Amino acid sequence: MNRLQSALTSLVLLMPMSTTVGAADYVIDTKGAHAFIQFSIKHLGYSWLVGRFNTFSGEFSYEEKKPEAARVSVTIDTASIDSNHAERDKHLRDEEFLDVDRFPEARFVSTSYRDLGDNRGELEGELTLHGVTRPITIAVTHIGAGQDPWGGYRRGFEGRVTLALADYGIKRNLGPASKEVNLWLGIEGIRNKPKGTKKP
Amino acid sequence: MIWRNTHHRYGTVQLTLHWLTALMVAILIPLGLWMTGLDYYDPWYRKAPDLHRSIGVLLTGLLVLRLYWRISQLQPDPAGGAAWQRTAAIATHRLLYLVPFLSAISGYLISTADGRSVDVFGWFEIPATLTGIERQEDIAGDIHFALAMLLLGLVVTHVTAALHHHFVMRDGLLWRMFPFRNQEAQKGEN
Protein backbone atom coordinates (compact mmCIF):
# COMPACT_ATOMS: atom_id res chain seq x y z
CA MET A 1 0.00 0.00 0.00
CA ASN A 2 2.85 2.32 0.92
CA ARG A 3 4.55 1.60 -2.36
CA LEU A 4 1.39 2.33 -4.31
CA GLN A 5 0.91 5.60 -2.43
CA SER A 6 4.45 6.77 -3.13
CA ALA A 7 4.08 5.77 -6.76
CA LEU A 8 0.90 7.79 -7.02
CA THR A 9 2.48 10.75 -5.24
CA SER A 10 5.46 10.81 -7.58
CA LEU A 11 3.11 10.51 -10.55
CA VAL A 12 1.11 13.51 -9.34
CA LEU A 13 4.35 15.45 -8.74
CA LEU A 14 5.59 14.64 -12.23
CA MET A 15 2.43 15.68 -14.00
CA PRO A 16 2.82 19.48 -13.77
CA MET A 17 6.46 19.14 -14.84
CA SER A 18 5.55 17.45 -18.08
CA THR A 19 2.91 20.01 -18.91
CA THR A 20 5.06 23.10 -18.21
CA VAL A 21 7.13 22.40 -21.33
CA GLY A 22 3.90 22.21 -23.27
CA ALA A 23 3.76 25.90 -24.15
CA ALA A 24 5.58 25.63 -27.49
CA ASP A 25 4.77 21.99 -28.17
CA TYR A 26 3.37 20.85 -31.42
CA VAL A 27 1.58 17.62 -32.23
CA ILE A 28 2.43 16.32 -35.68
CA ASP A 29 -0.72 16.45 -37.76
CA THR A 30 -1.03 12.83 -38.80
CA LYS A 31 -4.76 12.92 -38.15
CA GLY A 32 -5.28 15.39 -40.98
CA ALA A 33 -2.42 13.79 -42.96
CA HIS A 34 -0.28 16.91 -43.16
CA ALA A 35 2.80 14.91 -42.41
CA PHE A 36 4.59 12.32 -44.52
CA ILE A 37 7.39 9.85 -44.11
CA GLN A 38 8.50 8.82 -47.56
CA PHE A 39 11.38 6.65 -48.62
CA SER A 40 13.11 6.18 -51.93
CA ILE A 41 15.57 3.53 -52.99
CA LYS A 42 17.14 2.80 -56.35
CA HIS A 43 15.68 -0.10 -58.29
CA LEU A 44 18.53 -2.02 -59.96
CA GLY A 45 20.27 1.33 -60.37
CA TYR A 46 17.86 2.21 -63.18
CA SER A 47 15.09 4.13 -61.43
CA TRP A 48 13.64 5.18 -58.07
CA LEU A 49 11.21 3.15 -56.03
CA VAL A 50 9.17 5.40 -53.74
CA GLY A 51 7.05 4.39 -50.79
CA ARG A 52 5.89 5.67 -47.44
CA PHE A 53 4.85 4.80 -43.92
CA ASN A 54 1.18 5.47 -43.48
CA THR A 55 0.97 5.30 -39.69
CA PHE A 56 3.15 7.25 -37.29
CA SER A 57 2.81 9.81 -34.55
CA GLY A 58 5.01 12.38 -32.95
CA GLU A 59 5.51 15.80 -31.51
CA PHE A 60 8.08 18.53 -31.50
CA SER A 61 8.84 21.72 -29.69
CA TYR A 62 10.30 24.78 -31.33
CA GLU A 63 10.71 28.38 -30.34
CA GLU A 64 11.98 30.85 -32.87
CA LYS A 65 13.94 32.73 -30.21
CA LYS A 66 15.89 29.67 -29.19
CA PRO A 67 15.84 27.13 -32.00
CA GLU A 68 18.72 25.17 -30.47
CA ALA A 69 16.23 24.00 -27.82
CA ALA A 70 14.08 22.32 -30.46
CA ARG A 71 13.37 18.64 -29.99
CA VAL A 72 11.42 16.02 -31.88
CA SER A 73 10.20 12.51 -31.31
CA VAL A 74 8.44 10.32 -33.82
CA THR A 75 7.21 6.73 -33.59
CA ILE A 76 6.53 4.82 -36.80
CA ASP A 77 4.34 1.74 -37.22
CA THR A 78 6.66 -0.28 -39.45
CA ALA A 79 3.85 -2.53 -40.68
CA SER A 80 2.22 0.49 -42.29
CA ILE A 81 4.81 0.49 -45.07
CA ASP A 82 3.15 1.13 -48.41
CA SER A 83 4.94 0.86 -51.74
CA ASN A 84 1.72 0.60 -53.74
CA HIS A 85 2.18 -3.15 -54.33
CA ALA A 86 0.72 -5.67 -51.86
CA GLU A 87 3.12 -8.50 -52.66
CA ARG A 88 6.13 -6.22 -52.26
CA ASP A 89 4.77 -4.75 -49.01
CA LYS A 90 4.30 -8.29 -47.68
CA HIS A 91 7.93 -8.99 -48.52
CA LEU A 92 9.15 -5.73 -46.97
CA ARG A 93 7.35 -6.62 -43.72
CA ASP A 94 8.84 -10.10 -43.44
CA GLU A 95 12.06 -11.27 -41.75
CA GLU A 96 14.30 -10.30 -44.64
CA PHE A 97 13.55 -6.59 -44.36
CA LEU A 98 11.68 -4.79 -41.57
CA ASP A 99 10.64 -7.94 -39.67
CA VAL A 100 7.62 -6.09 -38.33
CA ASP A 101 6.47 -8.94 -36.09
CA ARG A 102 9.67 -8.59 -34.06
CA PHE A 103 10.14 -4.85 -34.57
CA PRO A 104 6.69 -3.30 -34.89
CA GLU A 105 7.98 0.20 -34.13
CA ALA A 106 10.72 2.44 -35.43
CA ARG A 107 11.52 5.50 -33.37
CA PHE A 108 13.43 8.74 -33.72
CA VAL A 109 14.27 10.89 -30.71
CA SER A 110 16.29 14.05 -31.22
CA THR A 111 19.27 14.89 -29.06
CA SER A 112 20.25 18.32 -30.39
CA TYR A 113 19.45 20.90 -33.03
CA ARG A 114 21.88 23.27 -34.68
CA ASP A 115 20.49 26.33 -36.41
CA LEU A 116 22.49 27.06 -39.56
CA GLY A 117 20.56 30.22 -40.40
CA ASP A 118 18.56 30.87 -43.55
CA ASN A 119 15.84 28.51 -42.27
CA ARG A 120 18.20 25.56 -42.29
CA GLY A 121 19.38 23.34 -39.52
CA GLU A 122 20.82 20.02 -38.49
CA LEU A 123 18.83 17.76 -36.24
CA GLU A 124 20.77 15.08 -34.45
CA GLY A 125 19.13 12.16 -32.77
CA GLU A 126 18.86 8.45 -32.34
CA LEU A 127 16.99 6.31 -34.80
CA THR A 128 15.84 2.87 -33.75
CA LEU A 129 15.02 0.73 -36.76
CA HIS A 130 14.91 -3.07 -37.04
CA GLY A 131 15.99 -3.21 -33.39
CA VAL A 132 19.20 -1.23 -34.02
CA THR A 133 19.70 2.22 -32.50
CA ARG A 134 22.12 4.57 -34.25
CA PRO A 135 22.81 8.29 -34.23
CA ILE A 136 21.70 10.11 -37.37
CA THR A 137 21.75 13.71 -38.57
CA ILE A 138 18.73 15.00 -40.43
CA ALA A 139 19.14 18.00 -42.72
CA VAL A 140 16.22 20.25 -41.81
CA THR A 141 14.54 23.12 -43.58
CA HIS A 142 12.09 25.24 -41.65
CA ILE A 143 9.33 25.99 -44.13
CA GLY A 144 6.95 28.23 -42.29
CA ALA A 145 4.60 28.86 -39.40
CA GLY A 146 1.50 30.84 -38.63
CA GLN A 147 -2.21 30.87 -37.97
CA ASP A 148 -4.26 28.37 -39.89
CA PRO A 149 -7.74 29.34 -41.15
CA TRP A 150 -9.45 27.21 -38.48
CA GLY A 151 -8.24 28.79 -35.27
CA GLY A 152 -5.02 26.88 -34.77
CA TYR A 153 -1.33 27.60 -35.12
CA ARG A 154 0.85 25.45 -37.33
CA ARG A 155 4.53 25.04 -38.10
CA GLY A 156 6.20 22.86 -40.69
CA PHE A 157 9.59 21.45 -41.59
CA GLU A 158 11.09 19.11 -44.06
CA GLY A 159 13.92 16.74 -43.33
CA ARG A 160 16.23 14.57 -45.38
CA VAL A 161 18.49 11.76 -44.33
CA THR A 162 20.11 8.79 -46.07
CA LEU A 163 20.48 5.45 -44.28
CA ALA A 164 22.53 2.40 -45.17
CA LEU A 165 20.32 -0.69 -44.81
CA ALA A 166 23.25 -2.79 -43.56
CA ASP A 167 23.77 -0.36 -40.64
CA TYR A 168 20.38 -1.46 -39.34
CA GLY A 169 20.99 -5.16 -39.83
CA ILE A 170 18.93 -5.40 -43.03
CA LYS A 171 21.18 -7.70 -45.00
CA ARG A 172 19.01 -8.65 -47.95
CA ASN A 173 20.89 -8.07 -51.21
CA LEU A 174 19.04 -5.71 -53.53
CA GLY A 175 22.10 -4.98 -55.62
CA PRO A 176 25.00 -2.53 -55.46
CA ALA A 177 22.88 0.50 -56.33
CA SER A 178 20.30 -0.23 -53.63
CA LYS A 179 22.28 -0.32 -50.41
CA GLU A 180 21.02 3.03 -49.18
CA VAL A 181 17.54 4.40 -48.67
CA ASN A 182 16.64 8.09 -48.62
CA LEU A 183 14.06 9.35 -46.20
CA TRP A 184 12.10 12.48 -46.91
CA LEU A 185 10.10 13.80 -44.01
CA GLY A 186 7.37 16.35 -44.39
CA ILE A 187 6.29 17.38 -40.93
CA GLU A 188 3.55 19.79 -39.96
CA GLY A 189 2.65 20.30 -36.32
CA ILE A 190 -0.34 21.92 -34.67
CA ARG A 191 0.60 23.91 -31.57
CA ASN A 192 -1.00 22.81 -28.34
CA LYS A 193 -3.47 25.29 -26.92
CA PRO A 194 -2.09 27.29 -23.99
CA LYS A 195 -2.95 25.94 -20.57
CA GLY A 196 -6.37 26.71 -19.18
CA THR A 197 -8.13 26.60 -22.53
CA LYS A 198 -10.09 23.65 -23.72
CA LYS A 199 -8.74 21.48 -26.47
CA PRO A 200 -10.95 21.51 -29.55
CA MET B 1 -11.51 -47.37 -71.85
CA ILE B 2 -14.25 -46.72 -69.32
CA TRP B 3 -15.06 -43.03 -68.91
CA ARG B 4 -17.32 -43.34 -65.93
CA ASN B 5 -16.76 -44.96 -62.56
CA THR B 6 -17.98 -48.46 -61.79
CA HIS B 7 -18.55 -50.21 -58.47
CA HIS B 8 -15.05 -51.63 -58.75
CA ARG B 9 -12.90 -48.85 -60.13
CA TYR B 10 -12.58 -45.22 -61.12
CA GLY B 11 -13.31 -44.29 -64.72
CA THR B 12 -10.94 -42.42 -67.00
CA VAL B 13 -12.38 -38.99 -66.20
CA GLN B 14 -12.02 -39.17 -62.44
CA LEU B 15 -8.67 -40.89 -62.82
CA THR B 16 -7.35 -38.11 -65.06
CA LEU B 17 -8.67 -35.39 -62.76
CA HIS B 18 -7.08 -37.11 -59.77
CA TRP B 19 -3.62 -37.44 -61.29
CA LEU B 20 -3.64 -33.94 -62.80
CA THR B 21 -4.52 -32.53 -59.37
CA ALA B 22 -1.77 -34.62 -57.79
CA LEU B 23 0.75 -33.39 -60.36
CA MET B 24 -0.19 -29.73 -59.87
CA VAL B 25 -0.07 -29.97 -56.08
CA ALA B 26 3.29 -31.75 -56.37
CA ILE B 27 4.56 -28.78 -58.37
CA LEU B 28 2.85 -25.98 -56.44
CA ILE B 29 3.95 -26.75 -52.89
CA PRO B 30 7.72 -27.15 -53.56
CA LEU B 31 7.59 -24.24 -56.03
CA GLY B 32 5.93 -22.02 -53.42
CA LEU B 33 8.48 -22.90 -50.75
CA TRP B 34 11.41 -22.46 -53.15
CA MET B 35 10.35 -19.23 -54.82
CA THR B 36 9.90 -17.29 -51.58
CA GLY B 37 13.57 -17.86 -50.74
CA LEU B 38 15.03 -16.76 -54.07
CA ASP B 39 17.62 -14.01 -54.34
CA TYR B 40 16.42 -10.78 -55.93
CA TYR B 41 18.84 -11.29 -58.83
CA ASP B 42 17.87 -14.93 -59.45
CA PRO B 43 16.52 -15.40 -63.01
CA TRP B 44 13.55 -17.24 -61.46
CA TYR B 45 12.71 -14.42 -59.01
CA ARG B 46 9.82 -13.24 -61.21
CA LYS B 47 9.21 -16.36 -63.32
CA ALA B 48 8.63 -18.74 -60.39
CA PRO B 49 5.79 -16.72 -58.76
CA ASP B 50 4.23 -16.17 -62.23
CA LEU B 51 4.26 -19.93 -62.75
CA HIS B 52 2.93 -20.60 -59.22
CA ARG B 53 0.00 -18.19 -59.67
CA SER B 54 -0.82 -19.50 -63.17
CA ILE B 55 -0.79 -23.18 -62.17
CA GLY B 56 -2.78 -22.27 -59.05
CA VAL B 57 -5.56 -20.71 -61.12
CA LEU B 58 -5.65 -23.71 -63.49
CA LEU B 59 -5.81 -26.05 -60.49
CA THR B 60 -8.77 -24.09 -59.12
CA GLY B 61 -10.65 -24.64 -62.39
CA LEU B 62 -9.75 -28.29 -62.27
CA LEU B 63 -11.00 -28.54 -58.67
CA VAL B 64 -14.40 -27.22 -59.73
CA LEU B 65 -14.67 -29.87 -62.45
CA ARG B 66 -13.45 -32.49 -60.03
CA LEU B 67 -15.97 -31.58 -57.36
CA TYR B 68 -18.79 -31.60 -59.95
CA TRP B 69 -17.74 -35.02 -61.21
CA ARG B 70 -17.34 -36.41 -57.70
CA ILE B 71 -20.81 -35.30 -56.66
CA SER B 72 -22.61 -36.24 -59.86
CA GLN B 73 -21.05 -39.66 -60.50
CA LEU B 74 -21.27 -43.07 -58.96
CA GLN B 75 -18.37 -43.78 -56.62
CA PRO B 76 -16.65 -47.16 -56.32
CA ASP B 77 -17.56 -49.17 -53.23
CA PRO B 78 -15.80 -48.02 -50.08
CA ALA B 79 -12.64 -49.91 -49.13
CA GLY B 80 -12.61 -52.38 -46.26
CA GLY B 81 -11.02 -51.69 -42.92
CA ALA B 82 -11.93 -50.88 -39.35
CA ALA B 83 -14.67 -48.34 -38.65
CA TRP B 84 -12.16 -45.67 -37.63
CA GLN B 85 -10.22 -46.26 -40.85
CA ARG B 86 -13.35 -45.72 -42.93
CA THR B 87 -14.17 -42.56 -40.99
CA ALA B 88 -10.60 -41.32 -41.38
CA ALA B 89 -10.73 -42.07 -45.11
CA ILE B 90 -13.95 -40.10 -45.57
CA ALA B 91 -12.58 -37.15 -43.58
CA THR B 92 -9.26 -37.15 -45.44
CA HIS B 93 -10.96 -37.33 -48.84
CA ARG B 94 -13.30 -34.47 -47.99
CA LEU B 95 -10.41 -32.36 -46.77
CA LEU B 96 -8.44 -33.22 -49.91
CA TYR B 97 -11.21 -31.52 -51.85
CA LEU B 98 -11.74 -28.61 -49.46
CA VAL B 99 -8.20 -27.58 -48.47
CA PRO B 100 -6.83 -26.98 -52.01
CA PHE B 101 -9.85 -24.73 -52.63
CA LEU B 102 -9.22 -22.66 -49.52
CA SER B 103 -5.53 -22.57 -50.32
CA ALA B 104 -6.25 -21.27 -53.81
CA ILE B 105 -8.56 -18.57 -52.47
CA SER B 106 -6.04 -17.41 -49.86
CA GLY B 107 -3.29 -17.30 -52.48
CA TYR B 108 -5.49 -15.27 -54.79
CA LEU B 109 -6.18 -12.83 -51.94
CA ILE B 110 -2.44 -12.18 -51.50
CA SER B 111 -1.81 -11.25 -55.11
CA THR B 112 -5.01 -9.24 -55.52
CA ALA B 113 -4.90 -7.42 -52.15
CA ASP B 114 -4.08 -4.11 -53.85
CA GLY B 115 -6.55 -4.57 -56.71
CA ARG B 116 -4.09 -6.06 -59.18
CA SER B 117 -5.35 -8.99 -61.21
CA VAL B 118 -3.73 -12.42 -61.51
CA ASP B 119 -2.25 -13.18 -64.91
CA VAL B 120 -2.43 -16.80 -66.10
CA PHE B 121 0.44 -17.60 -68.49
CA GLY B 122 -0.43 -14.38 -70.33
CA TRP B 123 -3.58 -16.11 -71.63
CA PHE B 124 -6.15 -14.34 -69.45
CA GLU B 125 -6.47 -12.47 -66.16
CA ILE B 126 -8.47 -13.12 -63.01
CA PRO B 127 -9.60 -9.75 -61.66
CA ALA B 128 -9.37 -8.75 -58.00
CA THR B 129 -12.56 -8.84 -55.95
CA LEU B 130 -11.95 -8.59 -52.21
CA THR B 131 -9.31 -5.89 -51.66
CA GLY B 132 -8.05 -3.35 -49.19
CA ILE B 133 -8.48 -5.21 -45.90
CA GLU B 134 -5.88 -3.95 -43.42
CA ARG B 135 -2.74 -6.04 -44.09
CA GLN B 136 -4.77 -8.40 -46.29
CA GLU B 137 -1.66 -9.74 -48.04
CA ASP B 138 -0.04 -10.69 -44.71
CA ILE B 139 -3.14 -12.39 -43.26
CA ALA B 140 -3.88 -14.22 -46.52
CA GLY B 141 -0.19 -15.17 -46.72
CA ASP B 142 -0.17 -16.75 -43.26
CA ILE B 143 -3.37 -18.67 -44.06
CA HIS B 144 -2.01 -19.73 -47.46
CA PHE B 145 1.13 -21.15 -45.86
CA ALA B 146 -0.78 -22.94 -43.07
CA LEU B 147 -3.20 -24.50 -45.58
CA ALA B 148 -0.33 -25.62 -47.82
CA MET B 149 1.28 -27.36 -44.84
CA LEU B 150 -2.06 -28.93 -43.91
CA LEU B 151 -2.45 -30.12 -47.50
CA LEU B 152 1.03 -31.61 -47.38
CA GLY B 153 0.01 -33.51 -44.22
CA LEU B 154 -3.18 -34.74 -45.91
CA VAL B 155 -1.24 -35.91 -48.96
CA VAL B 156 1.18 -37.85 -46.74
CA THR B 157 -1.78 -39.44 -44.92
CA HIS B 158 -3.51 -40.24 -48.23
CA VAL B 159 -0.40 -41.82 -49.79
CA THR B 160 0.45 -43.74 -46.61
CA ALA B 161 -3.08 -45.14 -46.45
CA ALA B 162 -2.99 -46.13 -50.15
CA LEU B 163 0.33 -47.92 -49.66
CA HIS B 164 -1.05 -49.62 -46.53
CA HIS B 165 -3.93 -50.99 -48.60
CA HIS B 166 -1.50 -52.19 -51.22
CA PHE B 167 1.30 -53.70 -49.17
CA VAL B 168 -0.28 -54.59 -45.83
CA MET B 169 -3.95 -55.26 -46.53
CA ARG B 170 -3.15 -56.45 -50.07
CA ASP B 171 -6.67 -55.66 -51.24
CA GLY B 172 -5.70 -54.36 -54.69
CA LEU B 173 -7.38 -51.04 -53.91
CA LEU B 174 -4.52 -49.02 -55.41
CA TRP B 175 -5.24 -50.30 -58.93
CA ARG B 176 -8.62 -48.57 -58.94
CA MET B 177 -6.78 -45.30 -59.48
CA PHE B 178 -4.46 -46.57 -62.25
CA PRO B 179 -5.33 -46.88 -65.93
CA PHE B 180 -3.66 -50.29 -66.29
CA ARG B 181 -3.74 -53.72 -64.58
CA ASN B 182 -7.50 -53.96 -64.82
CA GLN B 183 -7.36 -57.75 -64.57
CA GLU B 184 -5.43 -57.75 -61.34
CA ALA B 185 -7.70 -55.09 -59.91
CA GLN B 186 -10.69 -57.25 -60.55
CA LYS B 187 -9.00 -60.29 -59.10
CA GLY B 188 -7.82 -58.39 -56.03
CA GLU B 189 -11.29 -57.18 -55.26
CA ASN B 190 -12.93 -60.57 -55.57
Structural overview:
- The complex is a heterodimer of chains A (200) and B (190).
- Chain A is mainly beta and 200 residues long.
- Chain A has helices at 2-20, 86-93; strands at 25-28, 36-43, 47-53, 56-61, 71-77, 81-82, 105-117, 120-129, 132-147, 153-164, 180-191.
- Chain A has a single domain, classed as Lipocalin.
- Helices cover 14% and strands 48% of the residues of chain A.
- An 8-stranded antiparallel β-barrel of chain A has the order 1-4-5-7-8-9-10-11.
- Chain A starts with a helix and ends in a 9-residue tail after the last strand.
- Mean pLDDT of chain A is 89; it is low at 11-23.
- Chain B is mainly alpha-helical and 190 residues long.
- Chain B has a single domain, classed as Up-down Bundle (Fumarate Reductase Cytochrome B subunit), CATH 1.20.950.
- In chain B, a hairpin with a 3-residue loop joins strand 1 and strand 2 (124-126).
- In chain B, helix 1 runs antiparallel to helix 2 and helix 2 (44-72) packs across helix 3 (83-111).
- Chain B starts with 11 loop residues before the first helix and ends with a helix.
- The relative contact order of chain B is 0.12.
- The mean pLDDT of chain B is 91.
- The interface between A and B is medium-sized, with 12 and 15 residues.
